Amino acid sequence: MLKSNLTISLAATLLLAKADQPVHCLKSQVAGKWTLEVSTDQVTPDIFSSYEICTHNLPNRVQVIPKNHKFEFPSGSESLYLMLDSDMTVKVLDAQGIETGETGGWSMIYDQAFMITLPDRKQRF
């Protein structure tokens, strides 16, 4: 009886679930050629605004996005072409895919994100 109630409860919960873990990436799925659009704009987050869009600089903050919000790319950006190798190194490429000689590293953040470090640029992505 307990087993059948548990099965019914689990089935009902699965029918009500509207989302799952949004990302699950393996290193082999992340390694390869990437093109990043890097903003030249500087943004200072407003910690008092409930409509703050990018909350990665604000730990433990709920992200609230109004339904009518229009997402836009920044006015100034540049393309950054990268090769993320399976040995966790990064090679910067030009627009034709040729190595520029600039290198860095990358690492997985759990299975949900990755971080790229380019020491010559003093930037992390």
Tell me the radius of gyration. Answer: 20 Å
Structural class: alpha+beta
How would you characterize the largest beta sheet? 6 strands, antiparallel
Q: Record the strand order, biggest sheet.
A: 1-2-3-4-5-6
Q: In one word, what is the shape?
A: globular
- Kindly state the number of beta strands: 6
Name of the CATH class: Mainly Beta
Q: Into which percentage range does the β-strand content fall?
A: 25-35%
Secondary-structure element series: HHEEEEEE
Number of helices, counting only DSSP H or I runs of 4 residues or more? 2
| CATH topology tier name | Lipocalin
Write a structural description.
There is one protein chain. This protein has about 120 residues and is of the alpha+beta class. The protein has a single domain (about 20-125), classed as Lipocalin (Beta Barrel). About 15% of the residues lie in helices and about 30% in strands. It contains two helices and six strands. It has helices at about 1-15, 25-30; strands spanning about 30-40, 75-85, 90-95, 100-110, 115-120, 125. The chain has a six-stranded antiparallel β-sheet with strand order 1-2-3-4-5-6. A hairpin with a 3-residue loop joins β4 (about 100-110) and β5 (about 115-120).
Which features would summarize this protein structure in a list?
Lipocalin, alpha+beta, about 120 residues, disordered N terminus
Task: Kindly summarize this structure in a few lines.
The protein is an alpha+beta fold and 125 residues long.
